[in-house]
């Protein structure tokens, strides 16, 4: 097949992928179960989520599953008493899971540590007691400025265990951004690390903390706890700073789990801020616990032998829900890696999959597109046969990257599950299951208990195939429960823009099978001659070209058409810019999306600017 024929086949990719027979036979949730769950949720939403809640342990059962009396301030499992850490640790050490591996951690230099559930339980209890010794109690806030370390997981769980509220600040953020978060959250304690390894460098995180706290920005801040990692010299304020190791050394390995109301706060998580000032959203113990547990088990078809790896950083909601809490609630083994995916070369992730026998790998489209640039030789150097399920989250997953992952990582034997959810939702909302029929580029259908739709600005459903606004019409348990700051303004943004519906801020469309296709953010939309075109659609068309690794599209002013598109493109390894490639890419967009979509110019770059969560920063382009 010549180059043009290859290009033509990619442009008209309409393949459908059906589950393998063995997957259907072994599925914990088969198509019939899924259909029955959808029917139950449509008829009686509360009964569906009550059934999910009964899989977990509660100190006191709920009086009401979902209180809608003050909508949209929904309250889940009113009157119930629980603790998410009791379900993530205590209930497992009373079973055969006690000596099962809970956490496998690998550092960038190649060092590693492993914790059984019992070992993790004892480590969490020691730090919980250490936090109590520092004066931290129920309702207090703790800021965690941490990379991917076991102590990060331990700190999250220790806070939740004693009823404190943790607020993670991504370790890639600057001192200025940390300072802003500390001022807003006003913690009693900050937990950080001396330094950590990233792409062969030592990142000195304690120095950033010192810069952030120069003028005492937090009224209640009393202590900074520092984990030894890179063994670099740091300044320690004797009145404020203490070493993690010194704090926990003499603490008892037993600490009771605080009895929490279901709607007591668990953590504060800020939105990514790509569309304005980040909003501090609060998730609570009960509803979050139920939503994350159910979706983790169902979407990833969990088996007793699974080794689960979510490559997300714990500084983001994906890391909270499906690196830490989801796997531990389910009693499985979770993998964590400290460093860069390209260090020391572009096979690091595949080396980890092979070394630990990872069975489920959950990552981002950006990560896959980054690795695609190096071709298939690196995956071929490692035994990836342990994998049985692949997944992605965070942004629209273009068809070419989906197919590359399916063919080169899963070897055509693993379903690729493209999932949609947000910081605001707390849990996966729209996703296939391993038994679903897959369409590359589609997140398929909403999960049971999720009433999603695509509507116009007035809330009216749009016809199949037409773009519109993605909304959620009914409450779900892992939804954020409170806001740090101006609650009324934030709630109005999500719930009053289209009255009675949760406004997700994404543009999407549904096809004739009810499958959802995420097209990008609502504010990432081109208006060309009155036609609204998602930038993600144009980017997807560009990345279908075999030479393109990534693409970003912005709108530029046109006197006649209002807007036209300008594209920024990075190429796969070994390819270079040419006039022929310019023409091919413009023609590709035209053929893929129609003549209405005009790409005025294409600029080739070595890399595209991204937020710390891996999203392209279009505001820095153009």
TrEMBL record:
Start and end residues of each AMP-binding enzyme C-terminal domain: 537-615
Cross-referenced InterPro entries: Ac_CoA_lig, ACAS_N, AMP-bd_C, AMP-bd_C_sf, AMP-binding_CS, AMP-dep_synth/lig_dom, ANL_N_sf
Domain AMP-dependent synthetase/ligase residue range list: 97-476
GO molecular function: acetate-CoA ligase activity; AMP binding; ATP binding
Record domain Acetyl-coenzyme A synthetase N-terminal: where: 41-88
Domain of life: Bacteria
GO biological process terms, semicolon-separated: acetyl-CoA biosynthetic process from acetate
Signal sequence interval, chain numbering: none
PROSITE patterns: AMP_BINDING
Keywords per UniProt: Acetylation, ATP-binding, Ligase, Nucleotide-binding
Class of the enzyme per the UniProt entry, highest EC level: ligase
Keyword ATP-binding found: yes
Its EC number(s): 6.2.1.1
NCBIfam families, per database record: Ac_CoA_lig_AcsA (TIGR02188), PRK00174.1 (NF001208)
Family, similarity comment: Belongs to the ATP-dependent AMP-binding enzyme family.
Listed name of the protein: Acetate--CoA ligase
Species for this entry: Maridesulfovibrio salexigens (strain ATCC 14822 / DSM 2638 / NCIMB 8403 / VKM B-1763)
Lineage: Bacteria, Pseudomonadati, Thermodesulfobacteriota, Desulfovibrionia, Desulfovibrionales
């Amino acid at each position: 097949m010549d180059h043009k024929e290859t290009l033509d086949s990619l442009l008209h990719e309409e393949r459908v992928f059906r589950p393998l027979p063995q997957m259907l036979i072994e599925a914990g949730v088969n198509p019939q179960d899924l259909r029955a769950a959808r029917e139950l949720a449509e008829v009686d939403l509360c009964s569906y989520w009550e059934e999910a809640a009964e899989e977990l342990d509660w100190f006191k059962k709920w009086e009401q599953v979902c209180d809608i009396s003050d909508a949209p301030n929904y309250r889940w499992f009113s009157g119930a008493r629980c603790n998410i850490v009791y379900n993530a640790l205590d209930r497992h050490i009373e079973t055969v899971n006690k000596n099962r591996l809970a956490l496998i951690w690998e550092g960038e230099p190649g060092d590693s540590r492993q914790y059984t559930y019992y070992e993790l339980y004892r480590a969490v209890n020691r730090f919980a007691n250490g936090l109590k010794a520092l004066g931290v109690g129920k309702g207090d806030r703790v800021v965690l400025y941490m990379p991917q370390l076991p102590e990060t997981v331990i700190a999250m769980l220790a806070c939740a265990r004693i009823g404190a509220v943790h607020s993670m600040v991504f370790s890639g953020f600057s001192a200025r951004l940390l300072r802003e978060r500390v001022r807003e959250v006003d913690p009693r304690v900050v937990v950080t690390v001396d330094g950590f390894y990233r792409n062969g460098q030592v990142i000195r995180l304690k120095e950033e903390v010192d810069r952030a706290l120069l003028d005492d920005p937090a009224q209640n801040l009393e202590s900074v706890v520092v984990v030894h990692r890179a063994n670099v010299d740091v300044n320690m304020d004797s009145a404020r700073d203490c070493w993690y190791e010194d704090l926990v050394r003499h603490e008892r390995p037993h600490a009771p789990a605080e009895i929490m109301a279901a709607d007591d706060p668990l953590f504060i998580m800020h939105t990514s801020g790509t569309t304005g000032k980040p909003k501090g959203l609060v998730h609570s113990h009960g509803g979050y616990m139920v939503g994350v547990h159910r979706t983790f088990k169902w979407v990833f078809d969990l088996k007793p032998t699974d080794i689960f790896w979510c490559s997300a950083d714990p500084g983001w909601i994906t890391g909270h829900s499906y690196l830490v809490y989801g796997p531990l609630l389910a009693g499985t083994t979770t993998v964590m890696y400290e460093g860069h995916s390209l260090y020391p070369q572009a096979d690091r992730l595949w080396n980890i999959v092979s070394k630990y026998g990872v069975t489920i790998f959950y990552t981002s489209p950006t990560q896959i597109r980054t690795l695609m640039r190096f071709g298939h030789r690196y995956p071929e150097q490692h035994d990836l046969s342990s994998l049985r399920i692949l997944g992605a989250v965070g942004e629209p997953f273009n068809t070419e990257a989906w197919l590359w992952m399916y063919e080169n990582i899963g070897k055509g034997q693993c379903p690729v599950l493209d999932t949609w959810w947000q910081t605001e939702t707390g849990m996966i909302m729209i996703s296939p299951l391993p038994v679903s029929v897959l369409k590359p580029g589609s997140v398929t259908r909403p999960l049971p208990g999720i009433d999603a739709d695509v509507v116009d600005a007035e809330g009216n459903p749009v016809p199949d195939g037409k773009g519109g606004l993605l909304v959620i019409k009914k409450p779900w348990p892992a939804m954020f429960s409170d806001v740090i700051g101006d609650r009324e303004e934030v709630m109005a943004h999500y719930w009053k823009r289209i009255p009675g519906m949760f406004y997700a801020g994404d543009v999407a469309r549904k096809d004739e099978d009810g499958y959802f296709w995420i097209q990008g953010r609502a504010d990432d939309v081109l208006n060309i001659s009155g036609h609204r075109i998602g930038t993600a659609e144009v980017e997807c068309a560009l990345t279908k070209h075999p030479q393109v690794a990534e693409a970003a599209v912005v709108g530029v002013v046109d006197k006649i058409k209002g807007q036209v598109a300008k594209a920024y493109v990075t190429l796969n390894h070994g390819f270079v810019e040419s006039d022929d490639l310019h023409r091919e890419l413009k023609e590709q967009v035209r053929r893929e999306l129609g003549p209405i979509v005009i790409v005025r110019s294409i600029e080739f770059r070595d890399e595209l600017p991204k937020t710390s969560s891996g999203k392209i920063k279009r505001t820095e382009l153009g």
